[in-house]
Amino acid sequence: MQEDDGKGTIYPEILYDRLIHRLKFEKKNYRNLLSSNQNILNNYFLAFSRLTDSYMNGGNTDKALLVMDYFRKTFPSNDVKYNYYIYPFISNYFKAGKNDEAIKMLKTCINCCKSELESLINVKNKVSNDEKLTLEVFSLRELQNISSIYIPNHALINEINELVKKYDANQTD
Length: 173
Fold this sequence. Notes:
It is built from eight helices and two strands, in the order ββαααααααα. By secondary structure, it is mainly alpha-helical. α1 packs across α3, α3 runs antiparallel to α4 and α5 runs antiparallel to α6.
């Protein structure tokens, strides 16, 4: 069955077969990709996210969880930088009632943003980093939105709010 989520048509079962069964991801391969071309990894991240959304929207939570767990095993956060493309996983873990997994992934994504922002702030050539800085602050805001929907009273919201204030201020300096 095909599915169009407004971002283009996907065929969940075909995509599932290709991502889970046919493609072989090896650490040595994507470590090289990470250092040379983040865009290729982002395409994989997006494919996994869209597949997960498709299953969640179709009521197939078990299959969505299977895909997300496979993704996290295949692309562990200590080997690749999690970014905006996998943020739907956080929402989907919350929707599936896996709050601990969602919060763990949320914390990882916050730390990735914070680390990236710190490195961008410390680079001397501010002009070339403005766009990247803006994107990372936008990413923090997206994490802020997800958090306010699913865990409105959690301490992580305060942490994200402080980071947004801090780095928004750095952008205007």
